[in-house]
Amino acid sequence: MDETSVGRQRAPTILRVLWLFAQRLRGRMTATICLLTALCLAGVVLALDHGDHLVASMDEQTTDDAYVRADLVSIASHIGGYVESVPVADNERVEAGQTVAVIRSDDYKARLDAAEADLARLIHEDGGSGVASVA
Q1: Tens digits of per-residue pLDDT, 81-131?
Q2: Beta carbons of 67 and 52 less than 8 angstroms apart
């Protein structure tokens, strides 16, 4: 045998092996391509269905264990009572001495009226001398 006849016999054998290998891969590649196409289509459907929610939530941040670092100032009144109004908005900067809450004055007017009535009664009982003992 000479070299040309050996080369001719090998070429068809190698081509046949490659062709069989390609046939075997073609079935797997078809399945892989179908699977990838289905996944891409599912992704597109989800993006179209929930895309507005995904885009809207991109600028929102949520957490279960957050800490806030801020300047906090405790505010306390000298008297207790029910708040009638709050003339400042949330997170508004306030200055020292600015009114931040108005307390209902009904209770204090009633106490003042009762104290004035007690004083008038004591002055009347004392005879108008101007010296009264408050018990």
Answers
A1: 888 999 999 888 888 888 888 989 898 899 999 999 999 999 888 776 655
A2: no
DSSP character at residue 127? T
Q: Does the global pTM surpass 0.90? A: no
β-partners of residue 85 are 102
The answer to whether the beta carbons of residues 96 and 111 sit under 8 Å apart is: no
DSSP 58-117: GG----SS------------SS---EEE--S-TT----TT----EE--HHHHHHHHHHHH
Query: Both tokens of residue 68?
Result: 């806030």
Rounded CA-CA distance 97/3 in Å is: 109
Q: Residue 104: count other Cβ atoms within 10 Å of its Cβ.
A: 12
